[in-house]
Amino acid sequence: MKFSLQTIAIICGMLTIDIMMPFKVLSQTPTCPSFGVTAPMSPFPKSQVNQLVGGTPQDAGRRFEDFSRGSLYFNSNPPVLNNTRAFQSPARQQFAGIPNVVPDVVLPLLVVNPSGSQIFVDSVFDEVKAVIGTRLPPSYENHQIRGHIDHLGNLSPAGVSTLSGSIPEITFITTSDISAISQLTIQLAANEGVAVWHAIGCYENVPGRTRTYAQVSGSILLNPWVYLSGLSIPLSPRNPGTPVFFP
Asked: Which residues of 15-33 are buried (b: 16+ CB within 10 A; e: fewer)?
């Protein structure tokens, strides 16, 4: 299938452009930058997060979440804060009896095309997970993942818009134990018109350090075909975050 040079969209700082070529299926596994500040970057597993943070698993999870937000949005003005708002999800209510979801980060979606630009508030979610032994299927954590996708696709401003390029997004930022996101999640998101991105944590693995540099990898798009409905092709992967101290 080919596309015309009619739509140019910039979504959350990412340039997307319609070009005369078919979609190319991208790698399913994020990779770390080759070098950090003082040493090479390595994938950041949950065991190493726990070791550096100490305390409880909840402490490690919260610190990994804070680090991810600080790395990805290092230069943001105003700062990107941890989200505390709940968003309705009828699907999560149906499957788990829980009426809403609380994503870790909520951002606007900016779409620019020849007819003008438009901002769709609350249409991009980041979900940060320092976990092992899962690929984050829709049923994970009482259908939390299903709830995120349901809200973005069916209730978010971008999800209900018919404007070309208004594709809501969810980015999973995980410890490196999750090398790939569940195909069930990827397909559900595609069915609901939601783009799924994945990034992993990376760190300078230097023996003896109790504090080190860490950063979020570049994120990769897992279901590029979802942009067919908006006739736009995002250039990916997205750039890595900024190296920051951890913990």
From this structure: ebebeeeeeeeeeeebbbb
In the chain, the largest separation of any two C-alpha atoms, in whole Å, equals 56
> Would you list the domain boundaries of the chain?
8-246
Whether 99 shows a pLDDT value over 50: the answer reads: yes
Reading the block at residue 202, the tokens are 């990376």
Three-state SS annotation for the chain: CCCCCCCEEEECCEEEECCCCCCCCCCCCCCCCCECCCCEEEECCHHHHHHHHCCCHHHHHHHHHHHHHHHHCCCCCCCCCCCCCCEECHHHHHHHCCCEECCCEEEEEEEEECCEEEEEEEEEEEEEECCCCCCCCCCHHHHHHHHHHHHHHHCCHHHHCCCCCCCCEEEEEECCCCCCCCHHHHHHHHHCCCEEEEEEEEEECCCCCCCEEEEECCCEECCHHHHHHHCCCECCCCCCCCCEEEC
pTM, to two decimals? 0.88
> What does the pLDDT look like over 54-65, one tens digit per residue?
988 899 999 999
Tell me which amino acid residue 239 is.
N
User: Mean pLDDT across the stretch 226-242?
Assistant: 74
pLDDT digits (tens, 9 = 90+) for 21-39: 334 444 578 999 999 999 9
Residue type, 114: P
Residue pair 194/149 in contact (Cβ under 8 Å)? The answer is yes
**11 vs 200, residue with greater confidence:** 200
**Cβ proximity of 189 and 196 under 8 Å:** yes
